[in-house]
Predict the 3D structure of the following.
Amino acid sequence: MYLIEDSLKKEAKPFVFAGIAFSFYAMISIIVLVVDKRETSQEIATRLSMISLPSCILAWYTYFWYSKYTLTITHDQVIVKTLFREHIVYLRDVVSYSCKKIRKQEWYQFELFTTNKRIKARTHYKDKLIGILENQQT
């Protein structure tokens, strides 16, 4: 039974639109580089591709990271799954924690400190997670 199960899929949607836009600009710049042989067109397309290709990669990476992020809290452990890693922390091992609101977003970032590691957990359920952590520490 999960006490909290949260993901950031809603926050990933803007990055899809950014990824599509930058992919479109990258394709246009590559087509212009291949088809048009004028020097000014080549220079503009080169600059456009230098901006759009890294931005495209960053937008798609951020989208996949947000869409794969899940936080699951059971009665005895916290499981944080990201794009490449899975962290498991037992609630009895949490020594302290800190919480801060992320900019203008609806979610909060918790840092859970154990004796030998620190885990960052992002969630929409601030009050519920603070209640769970306070109950475990007493």
Notes: The CA atoms of residues 36 and 44 lie 11 Å apart. The longest helix spans residues 39-68.
